[in-house]
Amino acid sequence: MRIIVMYDLPVGEAQDRHEYSRFRQFLARDGYTRLQNSVYTRLAVDTKNAEAAIVRLKANLPEAGLVQVLRLSEASF
C-alpha cells in the first residue's frame, strides 16, 4: 500500500516558511520520498501501518494551507 501526500502551503510570511520547512522535514524523517515538488510518497506494509502513518501526519499538519492524502494499493500505484 502507498500513501501519497500532496500539499500547497503558503510561504509569504516568515512563520509560514518556518511551518513549511518543518512539515517538509517531518515528511523526510517519517520515511516519505519526494516524487515531485509538494508530492511525497511512503510505502506502508498494511492498512494498520498506513493508518498509523496518517495519524502521525495529522499530528504534524501546518496551521495554514492544503494537505491531501491518498491511500493506494501497489497495483494502483
Automatic annotation (TrEMBL):
MF-aspect GO terms: hydrolase activity; metal ion binding; RNA endonuclease activity
Keyword Nuclease carried by entry: yes
Residues engaged in binding Mg(2+): 8
Assigned keywords, A-Z: Antiviral defense, Endonuclease, Hydrolase, Magnesium, Metal-binding, Nuclease
Enzyme class (EC, first level): hydrolase
The enzyme's E.C. designation: 3.1.-.-
Reported cofactor(s): Mg(2+)
Domain of life, source organism: Bacteria
Any single GO BP term: maintenance of CRISPR repeat elements
Pfam families: CRISPR_Cas2
InterPro entries for this protein: CRISPR_associated_Cas2, Virulence_VapD/CRISPR_Cas2
Keyword set includes Nuclease: yes
Family the UniProt entry places it in: Belongs to the CRISPR-associated endoribonuclease Cas2 protein family.
Purpose: CRISPR (clustered regularly interspaced short palindromic repeat), is an adaptive immune system that provides protection against mobile genetic elements (viruses, transposable elements and conjugative plasmids). CRISPR clusters contain sequences complementary to antecedent mobile elements and target invading nucleic acids. CRISPR clusters are transcribed and processed into CRISPR RNA (crRNA). Functions as a ssRNA-specific endoribonuclease. Involved in the integration of spacer DNA into the CRISPR cassette.
Subunit structure: Homodimer, forms a heterotetramer with a Cas1 homodimer.
Name of the protein in question: CRISPR-associated endoribonuclease Cas2
Species annotation: Collinsella aerofaciens
Underlying gene: cas2
